[in-house]
Design goal:
With 148 residues, the protein is mainly alpha-helical. The chain has one domain. 80% of the residues lie in helices and 0% in strands. α1 runs antiparallel to α2 and α2 packs antiparallel against α3. The chain starts with 5 loop residues before the first helix and ends with a helix. The structure holds protoporphyrin IX containing FE. The site of protoporphyrin IX containing FE has 20 residues, from α1, α2, α3 and α5.
């Protein structure tokens, strides 16, 4: 357990929430770009533009925001001490691991588009777009309401 003052903990929480807002913005927007990208011809000007947008969203926003969310989040976990009885935190972190897996999958799909070898239909990315939304709802309810 790391011992930090109440004010420092609140600063960690503020920086954590700022980071997760940026991370969620990317996780919700990138699948939308994939939906539009499936509707243009590989090699076209529009397809090349989507490649730039997807690469910059991942590199400039999603990667740093995911790392910052984990760093500030784990610092708070370390400050909480004995977390064995905190069922809400265990459930929340399980959802966050799924959110991180979806981030890693999006990196793979972005690579397929970048090499003009995407085979997945528009419908697939429309469905994928709902996954981060549902996980986010579960995460926010668990961390604020702490139901168990
Ligand atoms: C990436 C790994 C994450 C870790 C290790 C983590 C851990 C934590 C911890 C320990 C707290 C403090 C809880 C308290 O003191 O009551 C917290 C607060 C919070 N987390 Fe996370 N979290 C993570 C990701 C996320 C994500 C992805 C979201 C949203 C989608 C999120 C939303 C929040 C919110 C809104 C709070 C503030 C709750 C309050 O004010 O009581 N966290 N997080």
């Amino acid at each position: 357990m790391i011992d930090i003052s109440g004010e420092a903990y609140q600063w960690l929480k503020a920086l954590h929430v700022i980071s997760v807002i940026a991370w969620m913005a990317g996780l919700l927007y990138l699948p939308r770009l994939f939906v539009y990208h499936t509707q243009v011809t590989p090699g076209s000007e529009a397809s090349e533009l989507f490649k730039v947008m997807e690469r910059r969203l991942l590199k400039a926003i999603m990667h740093p925001a995911a790392i910052a969310s984990w760093a500030f989040g784990l610092a708070m976990v370390a400050a909480l001490g004995d977390i064995r009885a905190m069922g809400w935190l265990h459930a929340k972190l399980s959802f966050v691991v799924l959110l991180t897996v979806s981030h890693l999958m999006m990196m793979r799909w972005k690579a397929d588009f970048a090499l003009d070898r995407n085979q997945r239909p528009t419908r697939f990315f429309r469905m994928i777009n709902e996954v981060p939304t549902l996980l986010m709802i579960g995460i926010v309810v668990l961390v604020i309401v702490k139901p168990f």
